[in-house]
Design goal:
18% strand; Rossmann fold; 14 strands; eight-stranded mixed β-sheet; alpha/beta; six-stranded antiparallel β-sheet
Length: 414
C-alpha cells in the first residue's frame, strides 16, 4: 500500500459534511512537488507563448483566437487523455474539462505523461492531478476537473462543450459518448491505444434538429456557430454496431507502449485543432490505425484505414435515433484496463468518507484505511477497495464481479 505511505497528514483530510455525491471542490493540499514550480514575476504573454504556432499557416492569429475561446471535454485522463490534455493546454485551448473516475498508481507513470511519483504516492484522482499539472503548463487555460464516472444521468451536463474527445479504455463509455453526441449534434473524436497499436476516428454527426437552450450549452456552442457545415460522417455504431467480442487485447494482456499512446493523442489533437479553428472540411473521414512495432510484408509502417465518409443506412443510433446507451440499458460492471479489478456502480446515495473510515478503523480485518478528501482506500485480505463519495468503488485483486459485489455489500451495504 505504498500509495498511502507519504505525508499521511494530508491524506486524512475529509470533505465538507454537506459535500454532494460528486463534489470535487474539496481537494487535499497541493503536493510538495508543486512548491518548486512558482509562477514567474511577470505573466507570459500570448504573443510569447504561441509565436511559433501562429506562424503556422493553418492556425495564424485568427485560429489562435478561436482556440482561446474554445471548450473541449476530455473523457478519461489516463495515458491518451493525459497526452491530449497537455497538447491542448500548450496549444492554448481556453477551457478544458477533464472527466476521470480513477486515481494515479505507480504503473501509470510509464505512459501517463501528466503525472509524477508524488501523484502516485498520494493516490491523487487523475482528473485533479492533471488539473494541477496543467495549471503549471499554462495558467491562462481554465481547467475543470470532475472526479466522477461518466454515466447517463450526468452525460448531458459533463459533455456540454464544442468538442468531446474520447480517451477512455472501454466501449461502454464510448457508446454513451456516441449516443449523447449524435443526439445533440456534437462532434467527437475516438482514440484508442494498446500494445504498439494506435487508432483514431472523427465523428461529425448531423446537426441537432432542435435548438439547444440550456445556459451551459449556449455558452459552450457560442464560439462554434460560425464554423462551416460539413456532411455528417459515420458514427461509432455505424462501424461497430456492437462492442467487439472474443479474445481482445487489453493493457492487461498485451501491455502498452507510451509511443502508441502519444501517436493516438497527437492525431486526435491535430484533428481537434482543425475543428476548433473552423476547418472541419480538413478533418479525416476514416478510422485509421497504426502498428508501430511490426511492419507489413513490404517493410513499411503497418497502417489500416477504413472510410467513414457517410452514415450507414439503418444505423441504430444515427439513423433510427435509438439511444440505448444513453437510456442506461444493460449498463454492466466494468473490468478496468491495466489491472486486476472491477468497478462497482452504486450512485443511489453519497458516502461520508470520514464516517466510513471511522467504522473501518474498528474492524480488525481491515488494513490501511486512508482517506484524502477525494477517495478512501483500504485493504481486506488480498483485495483493495477504493471508495469515492458518489458511491462508486474499485475492487482490486479480482475480476469476479460476484465477489466484488459481495465485498462492496459487506463494507458499504447493498
Amino acid at each position: 500500500m505504498s500509495a498511502f505511505l507519504s505525508d499521511p497528514g494530508n491524506l486524512d483530510a475529509n470533505p465538507a459534511p454537506d459535500a454532494g455525491p460528486e463534489a470535487n471542490s474539496e481537494t487535499p493540499p497541493e503536493h510538495p512537488a508543486a512548491l518548486s514550480h512558482a509562477l514567474p514575476d511577470h505573466a507570459i504573454t500570448d504573443r510569447e507563448r504561441y509565436s511559433r504556432q501562429v506562424l503556422f499557416a493553418g492556425i495564424g492569429e485568427a485560429g489562435q483566437h478561436l482556440l482561446g475561446r474554445a471548450h473541449v471535454v476530455i473523457v478519461g485522463v489516463g495515458a491518451t487523455g493525459a497526452a491530449t490534455a497537455s497538447l491542448l493546454a500548450r496549444a492554448g485551448v481556453g477551457h478544458l474539462t477533464l472527466i476521470d473516475r480513477d486515481f494515479v498508481e505507480p504503473s501509470n507513470l510509464q505512459r501517463q505523461m501528466l503525472f509524477d511519483e508524488a501523484d502516485a504516492h498520494l493516490a491523487l484522482p487523475k482528473a485533479e492531478a492533471a488539473r494541477r499539472h496543467l495549471a503549471r503548463i499554462n495558467s491562462s487555460v481554465q481547467v475543470t476537473a470532475h472526479v466522477a464516472d461518466l454515466v447517463p444521468r450526468n452525460a448531458a451536463q459533463f459533455l456540454a462543450a464544442d468538442l468531446v474527445l474520447d480517451c477512455t479504455d472501454n466501449y461502454e463509455t464510448r457508446y454513451l459518448i456516441n449516443d449523447l453526441c449524435v443526439r445533440d449534434g456534437r462532434p467527437w473524436i475516438y482514440a484508442a491505444a494498446v500494445g504498439a497499436y494506435a487508432a483514431t476516428m472523427n465523428i461529425l454527426p448531423r446537426p441537432a434538429s432542435q435548438t439547444i437552450s440550456g445556459p451551459a450549452e449556449k455558452d459552450a456552442t457560442a464560439c462554434s456557430q460560425a464554423a462551416p457545415v460539413v456532411e455528417p460522417t459515420a458514427c461509432l455504431a455505424c462501424i461497430f454496431p456492437s462492442a467487439p467480442s472474443g479474445n481482445l487485447e487489453t493493457c492487461d494482456t498485451a501491455g502498452i507502449l507510451s509511443m502508441a499512446v502519444n501517436l493516438a493523442a497527437s492525431i486526435q489533437t491535430t484533428e481537434a485543432l482543425k475543428f476548433l479553428t473552423h476547418q472541419p472540411h480538413l478533418m479525416r473521414r476514416s478510422l485509421v490505425s497504426f502498428d508501430l512495432w511490426t511492419p507489413n510484408p513490404q517493410g513499411t509502417l503497418f497502417r489500416s484505414e477504413i472510410s467513414t465518409g457517410a452514415p450507414r443506412p439503418g444505423c441504430e443510433v444515427c439513423d433510427q435515433r435509438n439511444f440505448r446507451a444513453l437510456s442506461g440499458e444493460q449498463r454492466p460492471h466494468i473490468t478496468l484496463c491495466g489491472r486486476n479489478s472491477v468497478q462497482i456502480h452504486q450512485h443511489q446515495h453519497s458516502i461520508d468518507l470520514g464516517e466510513l473510515k471511522t467504522r473501518l478503523d474498528r474492524l480488525g480485518e481491515v488494513r490501511d484505511a486512508r482517506a484524502n478528501g477525494l477517495l478512501l482506500r483500504f485493504s481486506y485480505g488480498a483485495y483493495t477497495l477504493t471508495v469515492f463519495p458518489d458511491g462508486r468503488a474499485l475492487v482490486q485483486g479480482t475480476t469476479d464481479v460476484g465477489l466484488a459485489r459481495s465485498l462492496y455489500a459487506r463494507f458499504l451495504g447493498s
